[in-house]
Amino acid sequence: MKTKKKKSAGAGTEQKGVLVAHHGIAVDILFESGERQMVKVKRRAGHVVGDNVTVLNQRLTRRPRRTELRRRNSRGSVRIVGANLDVLGVVVSPMPLPTPGYIDQSIISARQADLTPVLIINKEDLVEADAFTAKMRETYADSLDMFVVSAKTGQGLEALTSFLGQGLRAFFVGITGVGKSSLLNTICPALDLKVGEIYEAGKRGCNTTTVSSLHSLPGGGELVDTPGFNEFGLVDITTEHLAEVFPGFENVMPGSCRFRDCRHRTEPGCTVSALIESNDIARERYDAYIEIFDQIKAGDAHFRNRR
Ligand SMILES: Nc1nc2c(ncn2[C@@H]2O[C@H](COP(=O)(O)OP(=O)(O)OP(=O)(O)O)[C@@H](O)[C@H]2O)c(=O)[nH]1
Ligand SMILES: [Mg+2]
Question: How far is the CA of 43 from the centre of ligand 1 (A)?
Fold first, then answer.
């Protein structure tokens, strides 16, 4: 978005704004007036893109967050990835393919944080796209809204932009190379974000995008572009809560099993078992649930003390 850069907010005047990019020791603030300013911050101050702030004499104060999206990285540390978001756009492509568990864990994390997850299948122009999209539909069509798009041809983007145009703030996640920045560039041609080299199978590239940044969309709504991360580790989820947010288990009414604390494993009178029998839950979805369930159980003790 093209806005005037301002050297410093008027001395003694408190201004409200939103954090639109984080550069480590400085953050870029977009004020309600439309002006922008870089403000120095401590590296570990914990501010993230989407934070509402006030700035007075170059001092930044963070205002309370409405929502907070968190993930655990591969070293087990918890990272807040964005604040005050409405939608999590999980971007996937037929090349590179999502890493195992990535989609499920992103959806679970979004639901835990009260964000609406949507699945964005990019690169529909590739020959591999039909089979991939069919698989995605089979697995997720009953769980969340899906947009099949191509940043290259612009195909399908109108549906996505009119969805976001309701005034939603969305955050794009997806492994590196799926086309998050390319999508933003096609939606907002003025942005000209850096995009990666043509993806070649088997060659895991480095991140092209290195800083998360928030952009207003021409048709309304806002979108955060992020550096790709290959894992979306769950944070603070219990085995009790998993079934309530797991994609594919939307038909399981909470409290409908015979035992109130049913974990949907081998308990008698389990609604999930009955829904598998009647083909209302796919066996493949159940296996994915068990895998995450076991990871949470195994990880509980390990991660609890490492926040
Ligand atoms: N064929 C095709 N290629 C695409 C499409 N969208 C993106 N690409 C290509 O995919 C590669 C990666 O695109 P980026 O937009 O940099 O991907 P990213 O998800 O932002 O990657 P990181 O910033 O590293 O996380 C580039 O070579 C793009 O030209 C698409 O719809 N179709
Ligand atoms: Mg990028």
Answer: 30
The residues with which 216 forms a beta bridge, in sequence order, are: 222
**Which ligand gives the minimal distance to the CA of 175?**
1
- Which ligand 1 atom sits nearest the alpha carbon of residue 151? 31
Using H for helix, E for strand and C for coil, what is the string for the chain?
Answer: CCCCECCCCCCCCCEEEEEEEECCCEEEEEECCCCEEEEECCCCCCCCCCCEEEEECCEEEECCCCCEEEEECCCCCEEEEEECCCEEEEEECCCCCCCCCHHHHHHHHHHHCCCEEEEEECCCCCCCHHHHHHHHHHHHCCCCEEEECCCCCCCCHHHHHHHHCCCCEEEEECCCCCCHHHHHHHHCCCCCCCCCCCCCCCCCCCCCCCCCEEEECCCCCEEEECCCCCCCECCCCCHHHHHHHCCCCCCCCCCCCCCCCCCCCCCCCCHHHHHHHCCCCCHHHHHHHHHHHHHHHHHHHHHHCCC
Residue ID of nearest Cα to ligand 1 atom 13: 179
Give dist(CA 59, CA 41) in Å, integer: 8
Q: What is the mean pLDDT of the chain?
A: 89
Phi first, then psi: what are they for 284, rounded to 5°?
Answer: -65, -35
* C-alpha span between 3 and 273 (Å, rounded): 56
Largest CA distance in the chain: 68
208 lines ligand 1 (CB under 6 A): yes
pTM: 0.90
Q: What is the pLDDT of residues 208-267, one digit of tens each?
A: 777 889 999 999 999 999 888 888 889 989 988 899 999 999 989 888 999 988 999 989
Work out the average pLDDT over 148-161. Answer: 97
CA angle 158, 164, 165 (to 5 degrees): 80
